[in-house]
């Protein structure tokens, strides 16, 4: 009994010390004494319910304990996040633990412990770091649970703090925007809307009730998610629309900051020029731009510059057509200035929330915001938990409604996802073609192989693994997972099979979007930084580090197998390209913007393409595929002035495509540096 009592005293003494060190006992908030709460947040991805998070909150006289468990079934991938947070009743953090649960594996994402004179941070992919004590701070990373995030907002709002340092990095800023009214079962409930920056790339929109309790979060980090407190589902559209409003307001602000030159007449003087028509570099050229169109191209000493022209000296630089990213998912407005900074003047958005996608597109196209032209492909999937997003085509009638919905909103394409039934794919394609739309996307699981998907009416196909099922059309069965074939199978492919595939794709005029950079990144061996294969990874926004720059990687064996597979795949795809099958460069995000360069470089490195041929996959090829070949995609008189300005010539070395220093988009000239700053891409030590 004495021993037990002694241990109890020691435990209480230790906690007392921690509380005092955290600035606690003398500043205890009576609001939190003996406070209890529990709740559930519903988790949506692209507005489709994929899971929920439940939390419990309890307090005694000295401490507050928050525990939460989030579970998701995201397209058949079941995972969870477990969080434990200990605070003083003054909301000062004492300890934090966040774990990722996937199958039998539990991975610690982040632990933070407050000690007597330091704060110890242990983060996945990093060495343990000791920080000096901070008067105000909160532990978080981009994978923070809704429950812990709720406590962050209590912390900020009760202390009246607009900005709070966070560990392991960065700081959070919370800005009040307006009051909204949610109507729940006929009752009007006032809510406060805030924009929060520092957690995910850009910002997230959050709502609290009058007591500062968190009600909803709408966030992105290259995909949009909504987390809504159970009971407030009826207000989902309010939260979706509110987030769109805040995103567009942010894009307007970015546009003011980057100061794109609006002169009606511009003269780009003294650059070399790669026009994407011939593989010859034209030296010492001048390009006259008038009202967003290329009016004149000629030798510097032969072109008369109009008196009213804004003259831009580009001596020593190289002009190429503005680039296309044909597999984007631009779920937040930071993509606008980021893409322009990288020389990308047109993107095909291959799946997004309709409200955000159309608002983003229109703010650029109609109101002149800083960003590329956005061509929209409407995400469409079939039934079941593996379906993607809220827009589904599960019957003939639904298929017709889906096509009309997207067509009426100005979409160029229907994007097929993996769960659409073959007979429904055919209806979608027929209805789309009637309206002058084309059909792109994945080979659906039930279609089994690319040949069947094309026969059903698909005009374009995405992803290397699915594209190459055309080689196995007589062998593919539902037992082959995701149609990813071992290198041995690819090596055993005969020239006859390759030629048959070429003939098939040529006959059907199929456009291919391999996204090979995905394979390159996914084959990264554990322990190697992403810079091993993506030299610009260090430049991404700090909030993207955890999911983009730092990756778990794969074993040495799987890494080698992956490399052999994508190298052999590119060898075959290179033969397709040489035979005349259109290949277009797209990223599926990976590392925002920079993976487009990796895609192009991989085509040249392993696909036996010349630098000129590789550049065409991101310029004239996609322009032609999207019916815009007469308007853009090459530097020719009469075409749109969409121009990437590089410090070095990519025909001499394809990696020079990374040296973009300025861009002309829709006739406006932008220096890349302020664009990167607006998009919040910055080197991190």
TrEMBL record:
Annotated ranges, domain Amidohydrolase-related: 319-668
SUPFAM superfamilies per record: Composite domain of metallo-dependent hydrolases, Metallo-dependent hydrolases
Gene3D superfamilies: Amidohydrolase, Urease, subunit C, domain 1
Domain of life from the UniProt record: Bacteria
Signal peptide extent: none
GO MF, one example: hydrolase activity, acting on carbon-nitrogen (but not peptide) bonds
Segments traversing the membrane: none
Cited PANTHER family: ALPHA-D-RIBOSE 1-METHYLPHOSPHONATE 5-TRIPHOSPHATE DIPHOSPHATASE (PTHR43135:SF3)
Name of the protein in question: Amidohydrolase family protein
Native organism: Neotamlana laminarinivorans
Lineage: Bacteria, Pseudomonadati, Bacteroidota, Flavobacteriia, Flavobacteriales
């Amino acid at each position: 009994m004495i021993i037990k009592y002694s241990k109890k005293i020691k435990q209480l003494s230790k906690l007392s010390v921690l509380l005092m060190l955290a600035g606690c006992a003398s500043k205890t908030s009576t609001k939190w004494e003996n406070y209890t709460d529990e709740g559930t947040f519903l988790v949506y991805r692209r507005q489709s319910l994929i899971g929920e998070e439940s939390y419990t909150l309890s307090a005694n006289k000295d401490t507050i304990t928050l525990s939460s468990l989030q579970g998701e079934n995201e397209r058949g991938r079941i995972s969870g996040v477990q969080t434990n947070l200990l605070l003083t009743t003054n909301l000062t953090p004492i300890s934090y633990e966040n774990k990722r649960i996937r199958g039998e594996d539990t991975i610690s994402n982040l632990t933070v412990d407050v000690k007597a004179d330091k704060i110890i941070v242990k983060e996945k992919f990093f060495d343990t770091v000791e920080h000096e004590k901070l008067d105000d701070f909160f532990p978080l990373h981009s994978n923070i649970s809704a429950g812990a995030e709720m406590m962050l907002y209590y912390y900020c709002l009760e202390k009246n703090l607009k900005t709070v340092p966070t560990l392991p990095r960065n700081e959070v800023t919370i800005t009040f925007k307006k009051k909204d009214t949610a109507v729940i079962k006929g009752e009007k409930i006032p809510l406060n809307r805030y924009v929060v920056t520092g957690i995910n790339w850009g910002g997230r929109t959050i709502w609290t009730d009058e007591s500062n309790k968190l009600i909803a979060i709408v966030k992105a980090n290259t995909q949009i998610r909504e987390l809504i407190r159970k009971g407030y589902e009826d207000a989902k559209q309010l939260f979706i629309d509110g987030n769109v409003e805040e995103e567009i307001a942010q894009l307007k602000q970015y546009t003011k900051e980057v100061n794109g030159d609006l002169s009606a007449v511009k003269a780009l003087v003294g650059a070399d020029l790669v026009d994407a028509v011939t593989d010859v570099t034209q030296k010492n050229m001048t390009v006259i731009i008038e009202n967003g169109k290329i009016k004149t191209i000629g030798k510097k000493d032969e072109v008369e510059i109009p008196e009213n022209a804004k003259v831009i000296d580009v001596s020593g630089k190289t002009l190429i057509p503005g680039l296309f990213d044909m597999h984007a998912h631009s779920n937040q407005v930071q993509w606008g200035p980021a893409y322009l900074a990288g020389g990308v003047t047109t993107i095909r958005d291959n799946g997004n929330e309709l409200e955000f996608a159309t608002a983003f597109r229109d703010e650029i196209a109609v109101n002149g915001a800083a960003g590329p032209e956005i061509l929209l492909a409407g995400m469409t999937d079939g039934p079941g938990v593996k379906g993607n997003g809220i827009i589904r085509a599960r019957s003939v009638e639904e298929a017709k409604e889906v096509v009309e919905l997207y067509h009426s909103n100005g979409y160029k394409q229907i994007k097929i996802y993996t769960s659409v039934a073959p007979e429904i794919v055919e209806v979608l394609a027929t209805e789309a073609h009637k309206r002058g739309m084309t059909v792109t996307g994945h080979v659906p699981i039930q279609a089994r192989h690319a040949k069947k998907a094309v026969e059903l009416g698909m005009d374009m196909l995405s992803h290397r693994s699915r594209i190459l099922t055309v080689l196995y059309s007589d062998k593919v069965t539902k037992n082959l997972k995701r149609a990813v074939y071992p290198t041995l199978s690819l090596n055993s492919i005969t020239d006859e099979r390759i030629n048959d595939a070429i003939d098939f794709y040529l006959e059907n005029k199929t456009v291919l979007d391999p996204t090979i950079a995905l394979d390159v990144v996914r084959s990264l061996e554990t322990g190697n930084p992403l810079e091993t294969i993506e030299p610009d990874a260090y430049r991404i926004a700090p909030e993207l580090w955890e999911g983009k720059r730092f990756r778990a990687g794969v074993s040495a064996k799987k890494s080698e197998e992956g490399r052999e597979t994508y190298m052999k795949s590119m060898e075959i795809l290179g033969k397709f390209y040489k035979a005349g099958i259109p290949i277009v460069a797209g990223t599926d995000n990976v590392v925002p913007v920079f993976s487009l360069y990796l895609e192009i470089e991989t085509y040249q490195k392993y696909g036996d393409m010349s630098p000129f041929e590789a550049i065409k996959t991101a310029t004239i090829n996609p322009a032609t595929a999207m019916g815009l070949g007469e308007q853009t995609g090459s530097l020719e008189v009469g075409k749109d002035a969409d121009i990437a300005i590089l410090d070095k010539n990519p025909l001499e070395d394809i990696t020079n495509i990374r040296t973009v220093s300025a861009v002309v988009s829709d006739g406006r000239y932008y220096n890349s540096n302020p664009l990167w700053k607006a998009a919040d891409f910055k080197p991190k030590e």
